[in-house]
Amino acid sequence: MLKEYAAQINGDPEKFAELASKYSDCSSHSHGGDLGFFKPGQMQRPFEEATYALKVGEISDVVDTDSGVHLILRTA
C-alpha cells in the first residue's frame, strides 16, 4: 500500500500532505505528515538514517521502525 502512495506522491509535498492527513496514524497527520525539524538522536535510528540519506524533495522507500512503517518526504 505504501509503495502505491509513494508512486502517487512522486515528490509532490501537497500530495504527501493530502495522503498523510487521510491515512497516517501518526500524530503528525494533523499537520499533513510534517514532523518539523529534528536533530540527530531524536528519531528511531532507521527513520533517522533514511531521512538523512534523502536529498530535499526525495521520498524514501518504505522504512520499517518499531513504531510502524513510514514514507518520508524530505523537505529541508
Automatic annotation (TrEMBL):
Enzyme class, first EC level, given as a word: isomerase
Listed InterPro entries: PPIase_dom_sf, PPIase_Pin1, PPIase_PpiC, PPIase_PpiC_CS
The protein's Enzyme Commission number: 5.2.1.8
GO MF terms, alphabetically ordered: peptidyl-prolyl cis-trans isomerase activity
Gene3D superfamilies: 3.10.50.40
One annotated Gene Ontology cellular component of this protein: cytosol
Reactions the enzyme catalyzes: [protein]-peptidylproline (omega=180) = [protein]-peptidylproline (omega=0)
Keywords: Isomerase, Rotamase
Domain PpiC residue range list: 1-76
Full protein name: Peptidyl-prolyl cis-trans isomerase
